[in-house]
Amino acid sequence: MRVCDLPLSADFVSHYESNGIEELYPPQEAAVEAGVANGGRVVAAIPTASGKTFIAELAMLTADGPGLYIVPLRALAREKYETFDELPGVSVGISTGDFDSAEEDLSEYDIVVATSEKVDSAIRNGASWVESLACVVVDEVHLLGAPGRGPTLEMTLATLQRRVPDLQLVALSATVDNPETIASWLDADLVESTWRPVSLRTGVYSDESVSFDDGTSLAVDVPPLGPKDDADTEATVSLVADAVTNGGQCLAFVRSRREAESLAERLAEEDLSPATDLGDELRELGGTATGAHLADCASTGVGFHHAGLRSSHRAAVETAFRERRLAVICATPTLAAGVNVPARRVVIRDQKRYTGDAMEWIPVLDVHQMCGRAGRPHLDPYGEAVLVGDDTTRDELVERYVEADAEAVDSQFADRESLRTHVLSVVASGFADSVAGVVDVFAATYYAHQQSDVDLTALVSDVVSELERMEMLTVDGSTLSATTLGSQTSRQYVSPTTGARIVSGIRTIQTMADENVTPRTALEVVCDTPDMLDTYLGNRERALMYQYARTHAAEFTTAMGETESFEDWLTAVKTARILHEWSQGETIEDLVERYRIGPGDLESRVERAEWLLGAADALCGALDSDVPEFREVRALLSP
């Protein structure tokens, strides 16, 4: 099937043909046959680089009205926005920012790109533009099975279907074990394929050789190991160097940030693909030690990528790799979550990661996502994915990852905090005013579809009782209504537990002496909430943070001896201290060095604090109170 045979205007046909897209890939043709260009609902479970973006564009360009493209990550939102913005005559908007507005101006665009959290927030805040949507495309829909993010995506899709009954839904996914279940839930046709435009072979390295699943093998020349050399690292270096020497690019995945930087530093010694100009450009983006380290590595053609980097550095690494100015990226698995960075060879050195309690195997889906990055269309004749093992792990790696199917996608909606959040939002948004009404809304969720025998009435009733105790809901006979606190909590897009903690903090502040209420007070309140990101508290820091907490005890709303978890509270105190020093003019370089956090960690926590301080100020209004420190600190945190 050719692009010119599709129901597209001449301008769009010309656009695609000028970009070398004339013939449809088999999965794209299957999606057309399933009705994606005629308003049909489709779930496309196909490999990376098999044409999912074109399927999405085809659905939105042929829809009878505006389109919405939902992504899991901000970085992916920016990438898709830039892609769609190239479409001739199409206006594109992007929304990933504040959670407390409906952003009605989004109704002006033909296509809107947004995170699922932003769409959920817009619905809660009464966004009328949602009801004008004709087509919604969900990227990475398998993230329905992700804790935290999954329930939000699930509720967003369930609500959109109720708000817009004739809505066209197109869900894009990696290959998973149960795509038919997702398709059944969305009342969509399933397009399932393993076809790729560039063939992929996957194998396991051991004993200086890679055995691939297509029966081929690759000899790997690993130099003799020195007394301090790590065998897995040196094998990875040899595999990467081989790919680059033969004209390819390489992604190397490791378990942690430290390992990503360490591997990049080791590969930089090989001077695989000098890129002095790129190193100079990265130095201009910031002066932290991490940024300088990245620039030094990049000048040899090697970059690293993890959440501890500033967003500008991560974007620069991704762009440089796509432009082939970087030969190698050493990364944590998060890089594989949707961002377009294909390589000829993917090397997965670490297949286990630390989860807080023990080292555990990485999920099969995550490994398949990494492997799927191998093979650059129009650049590589093939793609290779290699898991680094040894004689003792080779067979297990083959069985666990090479031969295994990815896990099934199961709903995480039953998580208690998620249930509290969404029961409150359904009532506060006016979608339901009784337990039966909430149950009716929840009956449309993926969770209810999977768990057809679950007693939703009992589940919702229990959660309603919890929210009543938290002063978020009132119950009058069979009628439910959100309190002023509950409505404001939902509107500010914080969890009920966070809202209750902030309310408790505000009430405590009202009893404190005026001279004891300081910016530290405001920061301690918002940092001691589940919606604030955790900050690592090292053993050597505990005594220092304990002393800091004692010194400023009169300024805090929580007494040191009254915490449910002293460790968690001390961690919150550390985050508050970092943010306070940032608000007082400390440099990012000093904070990164002093508290052993990444520049990206500081960036993300400042952003979170601004959001939560704004929510706290709004909740003050709901309590007829005023704590100006919330506003004052928020203003100081802003650039």
From TrEMBL:
Top-level lineage group: Archaea
Stretches assigned to the Helicase C-terminal domain: 236-427
Similarity-based family: Belongs to the helicase family. Hel308 subfamily.
UniProt GO MF annotations: helicase activity
Keywords: ATP-binding, DNA damage, DNA repair, DNA-binding, Helicase, Hydrolase, Isomerase, Nucleotide-binding
SUPFAM superfamilies cross-referenced by the UniProt entry: P-loop containing nucleoside triphosphate hydrolases, Sec63 N-terminal domain-like, Winged helix' DNA-binding domain
Catalytic activity: Couples ATP hydrolysis with the unwinding of duplex DNA by translocating in the 3'-5' direction; ATP + H2O = ADP + phosphate + H(+)
This enzyme's EC code(s): 5.6.2.4
Protein role: DNA-dependent ATPase and 3'-5' DNA helicase that may be involved in repair of stalled replication forks.
Protein name as catalogued: ATP-dependent DNA helicase Hel308
SMART domains per the UniProt record, alphabetical: DEXDc, HELICc
Binding, ATP: 28
Stretches assigned to the Helicase ATP-binding domain: 33-194
Assembly: Monomer.
Keyword match ATP-binding: yes
Keyword Ion transport attached: no
InterPro entries, per the entry: DEAD/DEAH_box_helicase_dom (IPR011545), Hel308-like_dom4 (IPR048772), Hel308_SKI2-like (IPR050474), Helicase_ATP-bd (IPR014001), Helicase_C-like (IPR001650), Helicase_Hel308 (IPR022965), HTH_61 (IPR046931), P-loop_NTPase (IPR027417)
Gene3D superfamilies on file: 1.10.3380.30, P-loop containing nucleotide triphosphate hydrolases (3.40.50.300)
